[in-house]
Amino acid sequence: MHFNPYGGLAAELAVMLVNAGPDLTPDRLLDLLRDRDYRPAGTCSDAELAELTAWARRLEEVFAGTVDRVPALNALLAESATQPYISEHHGRAPHLHFAREDGPMVARLKAYTASGLAHAFCQDPDRVGRCDREGCGVVYVDTSRNGRRRFCSTRCSNRVHVAEHRRTRALV
């Protein structure tokens, strides 16, 4: 499935923030952002990291479906997005921004991830989810062709299917 830049890259950044977990450090966060071609300016303080960690927990509720997703996404957008505008920074093609380029990193990340998750959700709500393996909390955006992803990885899928196979064999 083809996503626009916000539904793709920004939604994947939302996935990264949620899956990073509580052990994330400011330096590791900056490395993860750069790995995803997000260009943070400057450093990340412990307070900013704490704010982004709390934000990630709110994003996680949308992935997990533990809240009514549309009102939750609307609340995230209302809290984070400013007036959208078209930007042409760093030699990139014109694209939409939902927060000022010169704004604080946390505000920009919040707007970027909320709008990305909203775009992905609006294209197909079933493609935003959490791994079906019991005990696995990893979230994902399903970009597969058929859109039938249930697990975060082949490993989790195999563990579930092997356990199911062993259960059915034990019954025979």
Automatic annotation (TrEMBL):
Residue ranges crossing the lipid bilayer per the database entry: none
UniProt feature coiled coil, ranges: none
Residue ranges annotated for the Zinc finger CGNR domain, each copy included: 127-167
One Pfam family hit: zf-CGNR
Name used for this protein in its record: CGNR zinc finger domain-containing protein
Organism in which the protein naturally occurs: Umezawaea endophytica
